[in-house]
Amino acid sequence: MSTTPAGAPGLDELVSRAEAWAAADPDPATAAQLRETLARAAEPEGSPAREAARQELADAFAGTLQFGTAGLRAALGPGPNRMNRVTVRRAAAGVAAFLLGKVAAARPGAADGTRPRAVVGYDARTNSDVFAEETAAVFTAAGVEAYLMPSALPTPVLAYALQALGCDAGVMVTASHNPPQDNGYKVYLGGRAVDEGGRGAQIVAPVDAEISALIDAAGPVGAIVLAESGWTTLPASVAADYRDAVVRLADPGLFPARELKVVLTPLHGVGGETAAGVLRAAGFDDVSLVREQAEPDPAFPTVAFPNPEEAGALDLALEAAQAAGADLVIANDPDADRCAVAAEDPASGEWRMLRGDEVGALLGSHMVRRLGRGQGLTDDAAPAAAADASPAASPAAPPAADAEPGGPVFANSIVSSRLLSRIAASAGIAHRETLTGFKWISRVPGLVYGYEEALGYCVAPELVKDKDGISAALLVAEMAAEAKAQGQTLFDRLDALHVLHGVHLTDQLSVRVADLGLLEAMMTRLRQDPPASFADSPVETAVDLSEGSEQLPPTEGLLWATRDSTRVIIRPSGTEPKLKCYVEVIRPVDSSAELAEARQAARAAMDAALDDVREALGL
Which Gene Ontology MF annotations are present (predicted)? Predict the structure, then answer.
């Protein structure tokens, strides 16, 4: 995200800023690009290129890219509101200053072991390798002991290396599943730079503001020193170490089945080799990659958006799966921290991608069994634990009453389904709800499994304290192979969960706006004239999430829960100019014979609730 000062600068001021930037830009390519934009902006009135060039100058130079809890993420190009070598050098200087301040004994030239240690990784997007090496150079010059990944690797490998190497920070240069023109800069803390609960996780407030202030204090780019050498390029074995650690998560004693035909796609990202290597090393020999998407390509030529959640992103994988007679499709996003799953639904005979909440529940049930807490699908205690579907007064439910103190904990974001909490309760496992994002989920004490609806799963926080699409893929394959060996599918497992705990149907509505002020106006409208019901069920609980609670820190958003347990959460996106609305409908099921009818009722209620959301927003 960026900030634009009040009173947008005029053209003369924008041109002045751009000319100064071009003169100081250390990157000849972006300097030349900027000079071309300036030339087009100066063309005579009526030129088709003039207005576009002037708009580009306004967007690139009227505001400044702000460092937040997600780090930096923006389009590549010249200017303070873009990702480029200037913004990256300044960000690296700010992070280095933060680490030097946090590690009390750190100072340039200090003995080994007393300086801050940081590991830097990167994906295969345009300039990711350049940004990563310059980060290592800035760190080294500032007195931070820097380690650079040996090649473009998945984000989970960087998050693993942070903990495995005992570093104080990790930087990942990636824009994850953003469009090809974007890049980003993500920061994790560990070691001596953060308290124990945050080690290995992404930063949270107020650390982002502290680093942002240090970036502002870094001065002009010419004042930032880059070392010519002195950092350590890690050996290729760092990726092999991650792979071996993930492979050890497989439990062939409890889940011996390995007969499974898998089609895997990294969506032109960096996860293909690592994910396929993990699956094969764990005994899943029949794994094929989608040929057109197997190699890293920063242009992402076969997809409109390299995000497995987007319509059409899995088309090639589904075609390959049907042609090969595969059992399962696994898709990772370009930096492989997310995992999408698709299979043939026996009810329709059609292939479909499972929703993130569906995979989250299936993995939760599978984790129950891996923890030795029962069968996950057939516990006798489960129906009683799930019987009360009424919403709690608080948006964050307490742990299961019979959960052992200090025992394992499941967690998911507040906008994800409540089904995981019921699965946990049936197994006597504590459950927590958190704010959106793994920077919160991964901080839950005692966490053994966490997920969020946006295809993010953390199945081994002791290895990777973040979402990890590769380790999740392994456990999905383990689960699917066992189901196949028993003559079942993942959809049969999902049916069993819904019979046991009730149908939990989730859906979303996103409202994109051109003016960020409209988001505030819509939230104000909802506060002043809140809906009284959804799908003809009266609202019984209304929570303004901005006020916070004992369970959750404050965040901008509103939550309503109705008499029949329908839940609606509306919040502004933290990364895009849009309002996000999350709806969940729950319908009880007494037997498998009633499942289809319960699902139809849930779908009808969902459609009605979404219509009510649109009406409440004035759409």
Answer: magnesium ion binding; phosphopentomutase activity
Please, what is the Cα angle at 196 between 191 and 201, to 5 degrees? 75
The 10s digit of each residue's pLDDT in 545-584 is: 999 988 899 999 999 999 999 999 999 987 678 899 999 9
State how far the Cα of 456 lies from the Cα of 359, in Å rounded to an integer. Answer: 10
Same fold? 244-501, 503-617: no
- The fold of 64-235 is Alpha-D-Glucose-1,6-Bisphosphate; Chain A, domain 3 (3.40.120)
68 in Cβ contact with 87 (< 8 Å): no
**Using an 8 Å Cβ cutoff, are 91 and 212 in contact?**
no
Question: 244-501: CATH homologous superfamily?
Answer: Alpha-D-Glucose-1,6-Bisphosphate, subunit A, domain 3 (3.40.120.10)
Q: Where are the domains of the chain?
A: 1-62, 64-235, 244-501, 503-617
What would you report as the CA-atom Rg of the chain, rounded to the nearest whole angstrom?
Answer: 25
Confidence of residue 514 (pLDDT cuts 50, 70, 90): confident
Contact in structure between 30 and 18 (CB atoms under 8 Å): no
293: Cβ–Cβ under 8 A, 6 or more apart, which residues? 265, 266, 267, 268, 272, 302, 303, 316, 317
Catalytic-labelled residue, pool 128, 151, 176, 442: 176
Whole-structure pTM value: 0.93
CATH 3.30.310.50 fits 503-617, yes or no: yes
The residues, ordered by sequence, that sit 6+ positions from 196 with a Cβ below 8 Å of its Cβ are none
pLDDT, residue 389, reads 36
176 is catalytic: yes
pLDDT higher than threshold 50 for residue 36: yes
